[in-house]
């Protein structure tokens, strides 16, 4: 059983307000995924102050069979086959962070909305409620906070004897824009929001779309591990697989290469207009089927562990976020912009959302495809300009205003306010200003 005495309780950060010392998180992002996630980063920060029980997105029996040899499934296989609830405190993680793998669920997403889907969903929720009851019993968890971060398919129904002190739902993307999860996700996210005591979203657009007069959604943007990314400011050798010679400027990108987000036509034009630059892409999604991807000065390095990213950012002259302007990207608060800024790098990005517009004083925003290559050259020139250090300082200061310690503190304060409103018998509607970058 974990010790609860070696780390602070959240009351220390809330000026005496009483919050439970336990937080249960359900999310699609597994704790040991190939790439880091925003919700895991916040969970790690909170785990220095309270006990965080970070639940894996449940593995279905179908996932288990189809992904039998995949590392993430293989690591969980024995526990899943035994139908066990597996709890561990991973080595190197804060003492208050506990990874929870629930028993396998039945696959139901392929079913159309209706009785069959609802029956399967209720079965899975009963299974998860039993697992939650066991966790609470074995780990001595009394009152707790429950955060469902963009996984509306599970814990739709929390049994009365497992009801948390505060039920929180957080939206992270426009769920209508992902075909597989949109099938049930649109209505289930609305259901989760309606049942929550506190509703959060990571972008201004999501807050606007999901709020109702009676049930407002509060803004809690993503942040960055600024202490980690500031390591890129220190000199050091490039990584062993760095593909560039150092003779040409390097434009970097870190993140998902999905066609729903990335403006491939823009990148085609930028790479063609800047043949004297190297373009390096790090992240998931593989090599896209686009003209720019076949250019000799374009390099794809695949995903890298979060802790290694500063080593890859260090030799970059500037960084980019070449996103499309569409329904999905309007709902995105780009976590990566704070990582780039913490590394001191000039940033060029399209003006895809209201949230990225807030960084116009420390980043170069492209208003059209025509101005993008010129902004890349301007950003590279900034890196070697006489006032480069002044610009670096401004970027780092902006990133530090969007750090995970500050976001975690804001999250706990929103929870405190929601608890006060809940106990007063009113709708959860915190009165403090929204958290903004």
Polypeptide structure, described:
- The chain is of the alpha/beta class.
- It has two domains: 10-222 and 405-423, Rossmann fold (3-Layer(aba) Sandwich); 226-400, 3-Layer(aba) Sandwich (Rossmann fold).
- The protein has 16 helices and 14 strands.
- The two termini are 39 Å apart.
- Mean pLDDT is 92; it is low at 1-16 and 427-437.
Give the helices and strands, then pairings.
Blueprint: E1 22-27, H1 38-46, E2 51-55, H2 61-66, H3 71-74, H4 77-81, E3 86-88, E4 97-101, H5 115-139, E5 145-149, E6 166-171, H6 179-195, E7 198-201, H7 204-210, E8 218-219, H8 226-229, E9 250-254, H9 264-273, E10 278-282, E11 298-302, H10 309-313, E12 318-321, H11 327-330, H12 335-342, E13 347-350, H13 354-357, E14 364-366, H14 372-384, H15 388-400, H16 404-423
Parallel strand pairs: 1-2, 1-5, 2-4, 5-6, 6-7, 7-8, 9-10, 9-12, 10-11, 12-13, 13-14
Antiparallel strand pairs: 3-4
Helix pairs in contact: 1-16, 12-15
Task: Give a brief outline of the structure.
The chain is of the alpha/beta class and 437 residues long.
- Report the β-strand fraction as a percent range: 5-15%
Could you tell me the radius of gyration in angstroms? 22 Å
Average pLDDT reading: 92
CATH fold title of the largest domain: Rossmann fold
What is the number of helices?
Answer: 16
Question: What order do the helices and strands follow?
Answer: EHEHHHEEHEEHEHEHEHEEHEHHEHEHHH
- The amount of helix comes to 25-40%
The tally of strands reads: 14
What topology, given as strand order, has the largest sheet? 3-4-2-1-5-6-7-8
For the record, the CATH architecture of the largest domain stands as 3-Layer(aba) Sandwich
Count of separate structural domains: 2
Q: What are the low-pLDDT stretches, counting only 5+ consecutive residues below 50?
A: 1-16, 427-437
| Main sheet attributes: strand count, strand direction, barrel closure | 8 strands, mixed
Question: What is the overall silhouette?
Answer: globular
Mind telling me the CATH class of the largest domain?
Alpha Beta
Give the end-to-end Cα distance, rounded to a whole number of Å. 39 Å
Class from helix and strand fractions: alpha/beta
